[in-house]
Amino acid sequence: MDPDAARTARESLDLTFHMSNLLDTGLDRHTLSVLIALCDLGLNPEALAALVKELRREPHASSLPATSTAPSRLS
């Protein structure tokens, strides 16, 4: 990527991140970058927004009780 294109991309991400913060979305720069890249690839932005909302509703894997799928051996 040439320097001007890289600068423009960085400025666009900075502006998007600032707007995201103003709207209190809770999205970080990396997540926004991934979402922008997916939109650039042609994915529907409304579908991506619905997916983000759905993923936020689901409990985090780290908050679930740990379960083992391996058989336990008793000596």
From TrEMBL:
Any single GO BP term: microtubule nucleation by interphase microtubule organizing center
Q: What is its main location?
A: cytoplasm
The places in or outside the cell where this protein is found are:
Cytoplasm, Cytoskeleton, Microtubule organizing center
Pfam families (alphabetical) = MOZART1
* Matches recorded under InterPro entries: MZT1
Reply yes or no: does the keyword Ribosomal protein apply. Answer: no
Domain of life (superkingdom): Eukaryota
Q: What keywords are assigned to this protein?
A: Cytoplasm, Cytoskeleton
GO cellular component labels: gamma-tubulin ring complex; interphase microtubule organizing center; spindle
Q: Which family does it belong to?
A: Belongs to the MOZART1 family.
This one is known as Mitotic-spindle organizing protein 1
